[in-house]
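Comment on this:
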Amino acid sequence: MTTASTAAATYWEPLWSQGRRYRQLDDTENRLLDKHLGAGRARPALDIGCGSGSLTWRLAELGFRTTGIDCSPSAIALAAAQEPGHGRVPIWQCMDFTTDDLGALPEPAYAVITCRLVYRWIDDKTAFLDRVRHLLAPGGTFWAVTEIAGRRPATDPLQGLGVTPAQAELLTAGWSAVHTADLDVLRCYALRP
């Protein structure tokens, strides 16, 4: 396991090491994953910003050969400590997708790349999406889940967390197929080259 030493790691590591946990997958999101990603058939999948690993483990359960990456060593340790019992154990790697060498990943290309609750935090979204496209295998799917601005009540202290319409447009630009599904404050995107 490599160690990420970036500004992102400096921000996220204390949150994970102090016990912070984020929204877990629910039944609706799992059904959407089944519908848009299908059976893994041992194809490679990459989960960017895997956090505690719930999506990474779900991809493994679907039959993907999965790698989960996060810039926080504590998040990676937490994810690796889970044992859902289906026997398909992901590869865990501590790295910052936006700055680290993508050649350090175990696969040269991925049939599925996921990014759940991460896109909003990316500073250079264009460079991030270029890196995703570089790693996505022909015919692959980029699965992104992000909060949309303006969906929380004005009194909610987290009201400003969502992506703007311009950031959402940047996310969907240049893909041959764009499928979306809304889940309360979140939107799921299945994007294909």
In short: DSSP finds six helices and seven strands in the chain. Helices lie at 7-17, 27-37, 54-61, 73-81, 125-135, 165-172.
